[in-house]
Amino acid sequence: MTTTAPAAPARPAGASAVLPPLRIGPLTVDTPVVLAPMAGVTNAAFRRLCRESGAGLYVAEMVTSRALVERTPESFRIISFESDEVPRSVQVYGVDPATVGAAVRMLVEEDLADHVDLNFGCPVPKVTRRGGGAVLPWKRDLFRDIVRAAVGAARPRGVPVTVKMRKGVDEEHLTYVEAGLTAQDAGVAAVSLHGRTAADYYSGTADWDAIATLKQAVTDIPVLGNGDIWSAEDALAMVEHTRCDGVVVGRGCQGRPWLFADLAAAFAGSDARVRPGLGEVARVVRRHAELMVETFGDEGKALREMRKHMAWYLKGYVVGGEARAALGLVSTMAELDERLAALDLDQAYPGEAAEGPRGRAGSPKRPVLPYGWLDSRELSDTFARQLHEAELSVSGG
Ligand SMILES: Cc1cc2nc3c(=O)[nH]c(=O)nc-3n(C[C@H](O)[C@H](O)[C@H](O)COP(=O)(O)O)c2cc1C
Question: CA 264, 40, 296, 391 torsion: positive or negative?
Fold first, then answer.
């Protein structure tokens, strides 16, 4: 990607001024930065834009273990990688140890992934209602068995497994320290913590103190911090505050894939930052759309998927309401070109207005749980049946 700002200075391979390279099992990630898996966002097209900007680990959208085992076309779309994408990082969501084990075995035996991340962070009511996602680690035996099944299946091929989780159900029912230790014992290669509970949803600010606490407790494997990194400065601040071994960036790069260039520069000790004018942003939007057409093989679908990205890309730039609305409705590349050309493309970077929070936010929600879920830390047969349904209700991400 060309940018209006100076590129990050070259740095010696494997060196970061701020942190050493991140080691995830046999994988070495020179810049200890991870693109957080985001369903509907981190597909091959978006990952490519991010990869072109920076150097880190880029996790694909979540796929359910059941969809993988059933070999659904959508699951294969999610785990398709370009030939130059290394490592191929797949995130699996599952609630049943046997199915998760089978899915991971398939991924490694068929050489479809170089890294498997397990998702225990989903706060969506339709998932937590049946005991899945962020509330699953409350059932410590189930959590342990899922993680062991995944690690056991991946080990023969030397593929590292990591765990991504939230703090717990709510402040009264925290699980992250115990889950981190369990994951470490089970042989995972790293754990990441999103510093929110399921009840927090995406509200308020992420609790970086919890990341610091986890880092102190889990000493044998890298601990990655996640939540509310909107800029390279935030990433440095998180490392400073928590001593985490790397950062995981989600919403902050929505509409700003060049954030990975800022992060690479910051971790190399440089204060060079990408400050694109609107003309440059328009070029990135066009490239994103082109890559989406390649990814989906269907212009209509690709452009529909692009619509939500428009507001993120345009945040802070002076673009009239009508032009914004029109860009949010494009359905062909020709229409996109026409709408982009009509913008005031000479506009310089608007500064702070283009930065800061974007994407999902909202207010805390009392997590919807299976009746009696919190009464015991062990799984009963009734809950085991409900969990099976929890996976069926998650649609590929
Ligand atoms: C649109 C969207 C989709 C997401 N999908 C997933 C997912 O599939 N798997 C997952 O582990 N987390 C998912 N997340 C959570 C992010 O990975 C990340 O943990 C969260 O957004 C907090 O990081 P941030 O403050 O940098 O955004 C999603 C978040 C968003 C906003």
Answer: positive
